[in-house]
Amino acid sequence: MKLDNFKYEKDADGIVTLTMDMPGRSMNVLSAASLKDLETAIGAISGDASVKGVVLTSGKPAFLAGADLSELGASAGGGAGPKDETERKKATFAAIYSFNMLVRKLETMGKPVAAAINGTALGGGLEVTLACHYRVCADDPRIQLGLPESKVGVMPGAGGTQRLPRLIGVVNAVPLMLEGKSVSPQEALRLGIVHKVVPMPALVSEAKAWLKSAPEPVQPWDRKNFSVPGGGPYDKDSSQAYIIGSALLRKQSYGNYPAQINILKAVYEGVQVPIEAGLRIESRYMTELMLSPQSRNMIRSLFLSMQELSKGARRPRGVAESDPKRIAVLGAGLMGAGIAYVSALAGIEVVLIDRDQPSADKGKDYSARLLDKDIERGRASPQKKADVLSRIHPTTDYSGLKDVDLLIEAVFEDRAIKADVTKRAEAVLRADAVFGSNTSTIPITSLAEVSERPESFIGVHFFSPVERMGLVEIIMGKKTGETALAKAIDYVKKIRKTPIVVQDSRGFYTSRCFGTYTREGISLLSEGVHPALIENIGRMTGMPMGPLEVSDSVGLDTALKIGRATKKDLGISEVDDMEKILAWLVEANGRVGRKAGKGFYQYNDKGRAAGIWPDLFAYRTDWRDDVDRDELRRRLLYIQAVETARCFEEGVLTDVRDADIGSILGWGFAPWTGGTLSLIDMVGTARFVEECEALAKAHGPRFAPPALLKEMARKGESFYARFAPPKAA
Ligand code: NAI
């Protein structure tokens, strides 16, 4: 028997150890090739009377990472399959169902199977073990067990929605699947997902010992009189899981995520019938999901593009890899302190400079506080704290810059101060060191004017809070060279964040497009749309907050200042309704936003929004709620997408992945869409252009589709077809 992805060893007791170990990959995945091998192995085992039992384990540090999402991504949304919808559905169902049935064979082939889980088993990886008769897991808290499919828009499709509730009850199983949360081996033992947890060296022997006890190779759900723990949908406890589950789902996701909805349906319908019928139901819902554009877009953006960008897909080829060991951070304020922390955490030495020693020390204290919190939560040891802190060197002395590979400037957002520190730093920096600016608004090209080496000057734009935000927007100035770009990407990779690369422009990409959302919200308010309606519709589009709440976070004083400056640039002197309402809040009422604990919202003493400020309702008596909700939804979402399309047309963006990932990671753009450009592709370019033109006519030229979009609409093109990202080398 020829197996490429498994080792097949039979011992003297007739126990076969099937060790999954895919060649040339760091992790095992369920791909067409590995499933074919599994089928061959199952065939051989079931036809061999001398086999008494099977141990399924892995030769990699992780047990099995789940389905191969690159294969799944290619077939999602219909992929390259048949054009006819019915045929496409049939072909997709056939593929999903046959996979499900292959896994089913593990538990029905008449030989007992024990999973020896030596490492993380997620998604399809855990589902395969659920089809084993016994699960023993190594006692290592780093191991994660879970069904996280819904996080990337997919659902468990290898029996997970059927076996997990039958194993641990609907009440425990449903939240794990809806939230995609994984658990440690000990937690899995407590929940009944695994039978035993043993030290790693005893893993396989424990599995063999169980097999030697001559267990009956029958799953609980294949026995007579089986009932689901906690009961079916009509039993008291389980029914709560559906009622509360549906309500929570609605509250948290407003029906935007088909994966979660389909999981709930598959469980509800599936547990009422025998397992085989349940598996067929699951395959039907999985088929529906895989053909949905949301699922395709989410897999593509949240998994594939994210992975490609994080691995450095945007790094120029031909520049040698670099490994920054020592960097400098100039300015130890909110951003600088966070940048120092994430860098030191990644093992990089950090020279942290500020105007005076207490300010520099304060920047280092930020790391100490974060590490203390981690220690409190059992996520870090005092030793780790000492190690990380030993790498941060707070000082006022620029001579420490002489041997750094990279510098990140994060002083005040003031052109003159930035020019001054650039000159002082460059006098000391090594010739090959990169100068990165964390400016949020000043064009990189103009900051680089004072630089002696503009080819090494680049924007490295972090998001706040640095330790939590996964994105870094790298901005190319007019003269920035490829070596600086490569080195900046190498650094971002090292601190385990995802880099996108954009060209210089006011607000770059993320701030520019994100600002359209808040402005549209305030514009709606100035038109007299009821604030509660604006906020609710904002959240219903899938944005993490309503536009007024987001405006509070940014600062209403800032919004007022920017609005006035823009009007001045355009030569407009008239005070419009938008300015009036902001001036009323900021200047008449001192409500500058979250930082003051008062803005559009009122805030509790923990700084959390506690409802819209009641007096805002009194601002006028004729609030409108007779507006077209769908149009409101379109205004709030499309304004961000159409601005992204403009960035693409202007060359600020050059890669569709940067646009989509930047929008989701940078400002939380509705993840169910797959990102701003994926949204346009999902709506269809022609329809999107038509709807934007209607919005432009009704509400102003900010909605007018750019020429590129109109041309694409005419030609029937989508962004991902016309600007398909290059395949990985
Ligand atoms: P901050 O005011 O918290 O920190 C600035 C720090 O720079 C202060 O510690 C100050 O003492 C120090 N500083 C000022 N002049 C200096 C000089 N001549 N030499 C050395 N240190 C000096 O400001 P924050 O929020 O950290 O912003 C820093 C930069 O990051 C700005 O360019 C800002 O636009 C940008 N940024 C801010 C974000 C935010 O959410 N706050 C997000 C992304 C970028």
Number of helices: 30
List the bound ligands.
1,4-dihydronicotinamide adenine dinucleotide
CATH class categorisation of the largest domain: Alpha Beta
CATH architecture of the largest domain: Alpha-Beta Complex
The number of domains is 3
> What is the first-to-last residue Cα distance?
33 Å
Mean pLDDT: 94
Strand fraction? 5-15%
Report the principal-axis shape: globular
Count of extended strands: 19
CATH superfamily of the largest domain: 2-enoyl-CoA Hydratase, Chain A, domain 1
Structural class: alpha/beta
Largest sheet geometry: 8 strands, mixed
What are the defining features of this structure?
729 residues; alpha/beta; 2-enoyl-CoA Hydratase, Chain A, domain 1; Rossmann fold; N-(1-d-carboxylethyl)-l-norvaline Dehydrogenase, domain 2; 3 domains; 8-stranded mixed sheet; 6-stranded mixed sheet; 30 helices; 49% helix; binds 1,4-dihydronicotinamide adenine dinucleotide
Describe this structure in words.
- It contains 30 helices and 19 strands.
- The chain has an eight-stranded mixed β-sheet, sandwiched between helices. The chain has a six-stranded mixed β-sheet with strand order 1-2-3-4-6-9, with helices on both faces.
- The protein has about 725 residues and is an alpha/beta fold.
- It has three domains: about 5-290, 2-enoyl-CoA Hydratase, Chain A, domain 1; about 325-505, Rossmann fold (3-Layer(aba) Sandwich); about 510-650 and about 655-729, N-(1-d-carboxylethyl)-l-norvaline Dehydrogenase, domain 2, CATH 1.10.1040.
- Helix 9 (about 235-255) packs antiparallel against helix 10 (about 260-270).
- 1,4-dihydronicotinamide adenine dinucleotide (NAI) binds near residues 331, 411 and 412.
- 1,4-dihydronicotinamide adenine dinucleotide binds near residues 355 and 461.
